[in-house]
């Protein structure tokens, strides 16, 4: 049971939020999305109108959804685009692969991946040919490592990653090392924060570890934004440092893409991978993305008396990575497509790509990542202000572990609760129709997504949070 909150504490913030929302030139973007209602999130059935669960719940008030760091909400246009995809399939069958339809906004399926890469490139700051929309995040990390992790047991063989990396990244690295017949004990190096109570890792600490292992490190895998703390790493500085030491660096951009502007090409990033179901709103488990800098996918052609011979970096290959011009000639010789497209393996799910591109249309409407980032900084700063306006009794029960510097974070704030408060606080938040996520045993992550959250959401969250937190403390 949530504790009553001193309403007056929040009325000033509510008024401020209304003004900020009123002045917000991107506020119309929220209307592009289905924000679940408070009734929706309590309902135990698919169908709207079932009030059996809670007769008092308002059917139309949106819930406070601050969980785009986990799963973005659904753009309204997604259903329309998927319907167009279904109609193409229903009326054209296999012809949908290559036959353009005059009244369709969707390309023939054979070109769906190219269109997705073109729409994705500005979001990650890449040339179009440096991006492939393919597979899923962990698989893409494996594909990149299979191409670029070439350990020499007597030379460079180590992989550096964070000790608290997202588990899938950790497993991927472990298995890559073992796959090459090496031992994680000697070939895996982890970066730790020097302070147990502060999980933030400084650029300096990362550089120091790189220097220490520079001679025998083959690869670094780091997150653009750390999933647990919300820390935005200094991607250009760390990339330059790694490259100066001759180390290939791959970035996991799951929490950065669609959240902060990226300039992967100009930052000289070697390679990167990301998912599209968080800030990119592609839908659960949607197709992933990969970046390969143009210098890393060069194909050289040498002509001899016996004809021309192409050389390219080896990779785990499949027919979709083959050059489009010869892909359907069904020849046994692999001729990679130019750029990141040459790292594709299977033909992609057009259903997924259709869903993703519907959301990328909204990013185009927004004018790209720069205006969104400005908006996002204001939203997260306001969330911080709301948190600092909480009662002293409530503030004693948690601390923010995300860096206070807006340049070192994206949308998300991670709040570390006192021991034993997490479950009851999450229950109290759910009671108020607040959707956020938890990382056991102590952390909740709260992310006002740049595209669809508003200032009012921040107040609603903090009001519910104070009540839930105090109640959790009393129940302890
Ligand atoms: C930082 C990070 N890396 C990797 C993954 C795994 O992604 P996938 O299941 O799409 O491979 C996630 C999933 O949330 C993630 O947050």
Sheet-strand content, in percent, reads: 5-15%
Global shape: globular
Report the uncertain regions: none
Ends distance:
13 Å
Provide a descriptive summary of the structure in words.
This protein is of the alpha/beta class. The chain contains 15 helices and 17 strands. The strands form five sheets. A seven-stranded mixed β-sheet has the order 4-10-9-8-7-5-6, sandwiched between helices. A four-stranded antiparallel β-sheet has the order 13-14-17-16, covered by helices on one side. Strands 1-3 form a two-stranded antiparallel ribbon. Strand 16 (437-439) and strand 17 (443-446) form a beta hairpin. It is globular. The two termini are 13 Å apart. Bound molecules: pyridoxal-5'-phosphate (PLP). Pyridoxal-5'-phosphate (PLP) binds next to helix 5 and helix 6.
List the defining traits of the structure above.
476 residues; 15 helices; seven-stranded mixed beta sheet; binds pyridoxal-5'-phosphate; 14% strand; Aspartate Aminotransferase, domain 2; four-stranded antiparallel beta sheet; 2 domains; alpha/beta
In short:
The protein has helices at residues 7-23, 38-42, 76-92, 112-124, 137-148, 167-179, 184-187, 203-213, 235-244, 324-327, 350-366, 369-388, 392-395, 422-431, 455-475, and strands spanning 33-34, 64-65, 74-75, 131-133, 158-162, 188-191, 217-223, 248-252, 271-274, 289-292, 300-304, 307-311, 398-400, 413-417, 434-435, 437-439, 443-446. The protein is α/β, with parallel strands linked by helices.
């Amino acid at each position: 049971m949530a504790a009553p909150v001193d309403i007056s504490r929040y009325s000033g913030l509510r008024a401020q939020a209304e003004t900020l929302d009123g002045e917000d030139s991107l506020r119309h973007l929220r209307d592009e999305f289905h924000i679940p209602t408070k009734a929706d999130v309590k309902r135990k059935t698919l169908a709207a109108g079932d009030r059996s669960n809670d007769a008092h719940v308002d059917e139309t008030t949106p819930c406070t959804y601050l969980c785009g760091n986990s799963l973005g909400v659904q753009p309204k246009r997604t259903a329309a685009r998927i319907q167009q995809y279904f109609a193409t399939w229903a009326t054209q069958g296999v012809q949908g692969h290559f036959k353009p339809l005059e009244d369709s906004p969707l390309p023939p399926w054979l070109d769906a991946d190219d269109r997705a890469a073109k729409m994705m490139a500005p979001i990650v700051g890449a040339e179009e040919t440096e991006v492939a929309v393919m597979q899923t995040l962990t698989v893409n990390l494996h594909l990149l490592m299979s191409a670029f992790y070439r350990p020499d047991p007597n030379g460079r063989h180590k992989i550096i990653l964070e000790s608290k990396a997202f588990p899938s990244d950790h497993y991927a690295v472990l298995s890559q090392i073992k796959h090459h017949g090496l031992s994680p004990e000697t070939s895996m190096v982890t970066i730790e924060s020097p302070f147990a109570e502060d999980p933030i890792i400084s650029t300096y600490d990362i550089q120091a570890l790189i220097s220490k292992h520079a001679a025998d490190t083959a690869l670094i895998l780091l997150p653009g934004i750390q999933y647990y703390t919300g820390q935005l790493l200094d991607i250009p500085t760390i990339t330059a440092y790694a490259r100066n030491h001759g180390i290939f660096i791959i970035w996991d951009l799951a929490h950065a893409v669609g959240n902060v502007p990226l300039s992967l090409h100009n930052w000289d990033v070697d390679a990167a991978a990301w998912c599209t179901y968080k800030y990119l709103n592609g839908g659960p488990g949607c197709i992933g993305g990969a970046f390969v800098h143009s210098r890393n996918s060069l194909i050289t052609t040498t002509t001899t008396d016996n004809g021309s011979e192409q050389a390219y970096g080896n990779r785990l290959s499949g027919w979709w990575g083959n050059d489009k011009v010869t892909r359907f000639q069904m020849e046994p010789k692999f001729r990679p497509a130019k750029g990141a497209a040459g790292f594709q393996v299977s033909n992609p799910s057009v259903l997924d790509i259709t869903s993703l591109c519907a959301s990328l249309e909204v990013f185009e409407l927004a004018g790209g990542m720069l205006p969104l980032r400005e908006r996002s900084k204001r939203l997260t700063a306001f969330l911080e202000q709301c948190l600092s306006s909480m009662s002293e009794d409530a503030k004693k029960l948690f601390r923010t572990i995300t860096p206070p510097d807006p340049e070192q974070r994206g949308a998300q704030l991670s709040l570390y609760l006192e021991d034993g408060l997490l479950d009851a606080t999450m229950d109290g938040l759910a009671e108020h129709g607040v959707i956020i996520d938890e990382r056991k045993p102590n952390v909740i992550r709260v992310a006002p997504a740049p595209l669809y959250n508003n200032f009012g959401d921040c107040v609603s969250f903090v009001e519910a949070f104070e009540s839930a937190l105090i109640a959790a403390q009393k129940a302890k």
